[in-house]
Write a structure and sequence with these properties.
With about 290 residues, the chain is mainly alpha-helical. Helix content is about 55%, strand content about 5%. The protein has two domains: about 130 residues, no CATH class; about 130 residues. The chain starts with a helix and ends with a helix.
């Protein structure tokens, strides 16, 4: 039974990291709607039934992740009621509180493979309807330590990096671009994807081509930034293989609803040999 919701939230990022270790091959836990489908499929492969999900660590970790993805859509935060973690969406949306662990149990029981997305899609529709009626609203989520970002502030290194790539882009494009559109629009993603697979066909090639990867990451980040008037950020420090912003240049959506690290997006695309990865990310970014 959970008593201290603050301590429980502070430890959530570690539980989700453990979930990623357990299900990383079956589910790409990148906090997108698509990740809920793959997570639910992984749970169905793991369990025939789940009468008491609270006693099963993988189930509770999955509920943590599910709740975090849903709260990104609606805003709000976590609450503990009678020892059970509950997510409470922004009250203006009129949505009922939900125990993600109950939804995990229902998903395993019903075995449709669609229960997580059904709720996510319904909540997304409700939030979208409210947003259309109240354009100034955005999903103001209570920060979860270790998961939700704190903006690092001004960075001379970032300013210099952006200035250099804007200045050198014509030369970079002439060298690596090949044929295709390079106008920072969604139509230019095919050209970028082709260039990445041509120059760095595997993730192991990335360290061998730093000039290309750095320019490709800047270009992809600019596609995202311009699509929603986002902003570049830089978190100084040594990359640790765990924190997706530490030591990287990354982009942030102004409503706080999403952030992506372009270099890692490219690495993930190549590692998975998924040429639709970038369009999927753009859809998530602009939704």
């Amino acid at each position: 039974m959970i008593v201290d919701v603050e301590q429980w939230c502070e430890e959530m990022h570690m539980r989700i990291w453990l979930l990623d270790d357990l299900f990383g091959d079956e589910a790409d836990l990148d906090f997108t709607p698509e990740s809920l489908t793959s997570l639910e499929a992984a749970l169905l492969d793991e369990f025939e039934e789940l009468p008491d999900p609270g006693a099963v660590p993988i189930a509770t970790y999955s509920a943590d992740y599910l709740g975090e993805v849903l709260l990104q859509v609606t805003g709000g935060g976590w609450k503990v009621v009678a020892g059970v973690p509950i997510i409470k969406p922004d009250t203006v949306l009129g949505l009922r509180w939900l125990a993600p662990l109950d939804l995990v149990r229902i998903a395993v029981q019903r075995r449709t493979g669609e229960e997580f997305r059904r709720v996510h899609d319904a909540w997304t529709a409700t939030a979208g309807e409210h947003k259309r009626a109240h354009p100034g609203w955005f999903p103001d989520k209570e920060p979860t330590p270790g998961l939700d970002l704190e903006l690092p502030g001004p960075s001379a290194a970032l300013d210099a990096w952006l200035t250099r790539h804007e200045r050198e882009f014509p030369a970079w494009c002439a060298r690596f671009g090949g044929e295709g559109v390079w106008d920072f629009s969604a139509d230019s993603i095919d050209a970028l994807t082709n260039a990445v697979f041509r120059e760095t066909p595997t993730w192991a090639h990335f360290p061998e081509h730093p000039e290309f990867i750095d320019g490709a990451a800047w270009y992809w980040g600019e596609v995202l930034r311009r699509a929603v008037a986002g902003s570049w950020q830089h978190t100084p420090g040594e990359r640790d293989g765990m924190t997706p912003t530490l030591g990287y240049f990354w982009v942030y959506r102004p409503d706080g609803g999403a952030s992506f690290t372009p270099e890692l997006n490219l690495a993930n695309m190549v590692e998975r040999e998924d040429r639709q990865r970038l369009p999927t990310i753009l859809d998530t970014w602009t939704s």
